[in-house]
């Protein structure tokens, strides 16, 4: 489900731990969406990327490997596209996207996590 996200007013913000790259930090005031309830990602260095970034990574990996078939590439891309909220820069973090991407690529190919991470 795609949401247009509208912030709550500042009085209704939630005090939560600030998370960046999977590490928790001090408490900060986080706005949330009044439509779906998603908590806004405040990390400036951990913003989610669009799916095109990850398809470009796949292409570069395939150029280096020359092992992945078109079917594998398409299956990986379709699974990324099927994840609800994968491109949601409001509630998804780049750190979470990377973990998801690595897991999906490993599901369809025999490639190490370290190799995949080197292209991210």
H/E element sequence: EEHHHH
Mean pLDDT: 82
Q: Determine the fraction of residues in helical runs and give it as a percent range.
A: 40-55%
pLDDT below 50 for ≥5 consecutive residues: which ranges? none
The biggest beta sheet reads: 2 strands, antiparallel
Q: Structural class of the helix and strand makeup?
A: alpha+beta
Distance from first to last alpha carbon: 27 Å
Strand content: 5-15%
Task: Kindly describe this structure.
The chain is α+β, with helices and mostly antiparallel strands. It is built from 4 helices and 2 strands. The longest helix has 15 residues, at 51-65. The two termini are 27 Å apart. The mean pLDDT is 82.
Blueprint of the fold:
Layout lengths: L13 E7 L2 E8 L20 H15 L4 H13 L11 H15 L4 H7 L1
Helix pairs in contact: 1-2, 2-3
Quick recap:
42% of the residues lie in helices and 12% in strands.
List keywords for this structure.
120 residues, alpha+beta, 4 helices, 12% strand
């Amino acid at each position: 489900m795609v949401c247009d996200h509208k912030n709550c007013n500042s009085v209704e913000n939630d005090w939560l731990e600030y998370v960046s790259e999977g590490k928790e930090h001090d408490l900060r005031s986080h706005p949330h969406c009044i439509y779906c309830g998603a908590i806004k990602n405040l990390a400036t260095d951990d913003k989610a990327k669009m799916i095109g970034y990850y398809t470009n990574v796949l292409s570069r990996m395939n150029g280096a490997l020359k092992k992945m078939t078109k079917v594998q590439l398409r299956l990986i891309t379709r699974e990324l596209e099927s994840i609800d909220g994968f491109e949601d820069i409001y509630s998804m973090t780049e750190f979470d996207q990377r973990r998801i991407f690595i897991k999906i690529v490993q599901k369809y190919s025999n490639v190490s996590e370290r190799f995949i991470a080197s292209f991210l």
